[in-house]
């Protein structure tokens, strides 16, 4: 089985030519994010991903997490890998220096996160959740909470979780019933059962800090009555020393389709005197505070889709290059060739490759906008970047994971029958990818958020601004003398028109029928993701064309970038017309089926 090879060359290209690393490094506090430093970080991260994390991915899937004497145990090799990860300072890559982190931009951290996910999503979930807990405590935690928990979370000595849902609640967090009783000493006693808690318990470190949604006794019903609490696995005194175990117990591990090495727990709080918890922020503001980690997790899960897709593609490409079967079409020799020579296999591999590069480009452009939205010196620039990030977040979460799932499935198809056999490893990527479209809000929830909150609430202002930027790229492509670039421009122009028409339809429809507009939200998410990624591939083709020069050693890479962009335009971007038709004309049929009783 092939190990993961970090796509450093393409990441470098995107950071420099599309995401604007130099501009990000000029923001206040990011002076250390020079190209030399960033390159060194990426090289080290790539080596760690391929040399330490990737080798335990397959064995971890086979062995899986398990419970021994009531405690979850991780597979062989995971304790050592995580210890190396923590010692390397990777947990604090983009954490503020004041908290003990390295304060690198989110842009750089996102590139590194893709590599962790390409090496092993099961492993990468742990630092992703810990980073989210750090963000919440840093932004809304009291000084005492920060002092108690943050130093060892940043160092990676302890890990963190987000503890949201319950058996009766699912995605409806307003239905949470876990109870929190004031103890009279500033702490609370929590009792209740939580499910689907990723890394809810494990033996990789001494302590885990859970962020738990619960209701204080007497709180209002629904979402307005939910508070957020930090509940450690083991008690921690004011000096940071560990004490006895808290009243938190792992009841069982979920038996899952994929991510077998990730312990997904059912946790019981307060079986005895009640689990000691510390209020994070104000009472009854738990959901808005938890959204700090939830929004970050949505983008992080999108990167899971990109990383998994890259790993599935690398496996399929290697197999297709090695597997000899059949004669090449049009050849008179009859000689057997590697299946990569067969046109449909090449089509599948190019479909995988082009979408991965498109997603990577958009992901890192969004990450750069996150940095500018927070740190740019101009208020107008911060607002514009914030609007762009909010618009693209459902795309990053929904479109990336849906395509990651499809690419993993296509990887099995390239393998043929051997892909369906677990020993090849191709099936693991599909199994692991399946949850990503569900994590942190299903694709349908992301689509409704996109249409309702991000498109229609502001009358389409944010998406029209993006469409104007897309048009600028289209014009540059169509004016270029290179035939491939002009072809990309023509296809991009048609796709932008379809996106604009669909967005206008939704804005108008939402005013008189929210239900009708939302019935087309899923196809619209697909449409926006398709066109937004096509926009980035157009930008990539223009950059590659500009950089081509006889003396360059990377001309082959640049030529391939143009070819890949042309493939995306012809094979992926061309779907925009059909998707727009579904948005505008398909919603009424969907509702008619429901009203006729078909769905029931």
From TrEMBL:
Acyl-CoA dehydrogenase/oxidase C-terminal domain span: 284-450
Reactions it catalyzes: 3-(methylsulfanyl)propanoyl-CoA + oxidized [electron-transfer flavoprotein] + H(+) = 3-(methylsulfanyl)acryloyl-CoA + reduced [electron-transfer flavoprotein]
Names of required cofactors: FAD
InterPro entries attached to this UniProt entry: Acyl-CoA_dh-like_C_dom (IPR025878), Acyl-CoA_Oxase/DH_mid-dom (IPR006091), Acyl-CoA_Oxase/DH_mid-dom_sf (IPR046373), AcylCo_DH-like_C (IPR036250), AcylCo_DH/oxidase_C (IPR009075), AcylCoA_DH/ox_N (IPR013786), AcylCoA_DH/ox_N_sf (IPR037069), AcylCoA_DH/oxidase_NM_dom_sf (IPR009100)
Domain Acyl-CoA oxidase/dehydrogenase middle: from-to ranges: 162-270
Domain Acetyl-CoA dehydrogenase-like C-terminal intervals: 481-594
Positions of the Acyl-CoA dehydrogenase/oxidase N-terminal domain: 43-157
Task of the protein: Involved in the assimilation of dimethylsulphoniopropionate (DMSP), an important compound in the fixation of carbon in marine phytoplankton, by mediating the conversion of 3-(methylthio)propanoyl-CoA (MMPA-CoA) to 3-(methylthio)acryloyl-CoA (MTA-CoA).
UniProt keyword Nucleus present: no
Recorded family membership: Belongs to the acyl-CoA dehydrogenase family.
Gene3D superfamilies: Acyl-CoA dehydrogenase/oxidase, N-terminal domain, Butyryl-CoA Dehydrogenase, subunit A, domain 2, Butyryl-CoA Dehydrogenase, subunit A, domain 3
Source organism, top-level taxon: Bacteria
Enzyme Commission identifier(s): 1.3.99.41
Enzyme class: oxidoreductase
Name of this protein: 3-methylmercaptopropionyl-CoA dehydrogenase
